[in-house]
Structures are given as structure tokens and as C-alpha cells.
User: What shape does this take?
Amino acid sequence: MRVLFSSATIAIISLFLFTPFAPSVFAEKVKIYEAGTSNLNVRSSPSHDAPIIGKLQIGDQVRVFQKSFGWVQTYYGGKKAWVASQYLFQPDSKTKAIAQVASSTQKSIKKEQNKKTETISRNNFDNNKGQATKNGSLKGYNIVIDPGHGGRDSGAIGINGVLEKETIMSIVDSVVDRLRKSGANVIMTRNSDHFISLQDRVYISNSYNTHAFLSLHYNAHPLIGIQGLETHYYSGGENYALASSLQSKLEQYTSLESRGVKESNYFVLRESEVPSALIELGFITNPNDLSIIQTEGYQNSISEAISDGVKKYFRDK
Ligand SMILES: [Zn+2]
Assistant: This one.
């Protein structure tokens, strides 16, 4: 289903700690920093004398809204809070610590991170550009997979009340798994049924050293005869190349009708700072599409097609 920009979104998400926020902050450059030490004090104002209102542990991530004389401002429990900047660093460019972090600390951070279960906020990305090798490895590439809708946004409603937000999740694991087997680092904008704003989806992607952003959806139409899959891009050669590569593999690997590549002014595509595409993987309002969509075979084909489409894009680049 089409993704439209909605300004009336106040996201309550669990992806990042401590920072419920209003959409207006997206006008500013909000940066994510990571605690490089444990038991780091969170204070109510930028002073070592200020009351301690919380603690951060090593690897915890905070959104930084402003900096002031050695302090950074974030939110904690919904209120403005301050953390001494010397203990924070940017996870997506470890070399650019905003203050000196001893190299021994850096090493222990890395060690600690390696032990952690992979989550959205703690993926350990390097800045090396990936190399799509002849055997099709995606090693070194950071791919964002954005399952459409979620939570109070059910997306399209199909035959027998099938919900787009649920149907899409049933295919996402397989897609992510396939990309990871190809060597890619994969970030998901959501991995459960919760609401996440369009702004946040893009924000997550733009916060990392992402190489490609893929939003996955199922389509709907009032006429049940409308069927097939299509890939959308915003504009520009790179976006078009990515979308074309994906669509050509989808055509090759699935039996659904191809509706081609379409240029669309969708928020998540327009605001993405990296090559992006939005794939509509068939119509849940069409009996033929829906019967195919729900099979394991289709899910495997889609996963192969997306993985190979991404590889082809990077290889041809
Ligand atoms: Zn949708």
C-alpha cells in the first residue's frame, strides 16, 4: 500500500533508548551516540553538581539534540537530560569520538559489542565500502530492510481481512536471512508489530553507514482483478538502477505479473540519503496473488530475488 507522509506522528518506539520525541526535531541534525563506559551519569542539567536522574551502561545509545561545553543533551524519561560528552562516541564512525576516548576503552567497547546479541540499535557497522564479488558476496554492505506499517497502522486490508502489516512480516525474516547469508549487515526498521513513523524509518537508515534502503509492502486495490508486483523509486540514476535490478530479479524468480518499475514521490524514498526502493510484493486484494503470496515457495523466491537484485545492483554499479 502506498506510503504517504503523515505529519501527525508522535512515535513511541523502543528502538532507541530514552528518547521519545516530536517530529519537529527532524529538522535539526539529531545524532546518535553510544556510551563508552558503564554507570555513566545522566543529569538534569549540564553540570557535575546537577542531580543524577539515570545511568547509562556501555553500549547504550542516546539521541543527542544539542551540545554545550562538554555536555550533550538528550531525553531521559521524557525529560531533557544531560550527559558528559567525553564518555560518548558515534557508533557509526568510531574513529570520530566527540572527545578523547582511550584506545583501551575502545577495544573493550568492541569486545563488549561483539558479545551482544544483534539488535537494531547495536549493529556493529564498519565504514568500509562493501565489495560485491563475483561469487555475489554482500560482505561489507549495510542494508536496511523496512517492513511497511505496523502497530496501529495496519496498512492495506486484503481478502478475508488479511492485514498488510502482518503479511509482510511473514516474509521479512526470510529476506533478512537470505541477505545475511550473502554476507550483508542487515538493519530492520521494525521486527515486531509496532508503529514506527515514516520519519523514523528514514532516520534509522540515515543514521548508519547504509548502502541501500529497501521498504517492503503488499499492495491493495478496490478492483480484485488488479494483480502483480512492482518496484518504486524516487528519482535519479542510482535509485532507478536499484529498483530495476530488483524488479528484473522479481520477474525472473516469481510467477506474479510484473507491473514494472515506477517513479513515485514516497516519503521514505524521497528522504533517503542512500539508494532506495519500495517493493510492492503483490496484491492482497487479488485471490491469485494472495494464494501465491502465502506460500513458503513464494517467500523463498522473493528472498532470492531481493538478495540477487541487490547483488546485481552493486556489481553493476
Ligand atoms: Zn504498504
Notes: The mean pLDDT is 79. The helical segments are 103-115, 164-181, 198-207, 237-253, 267-270, 287-293, 296-316.
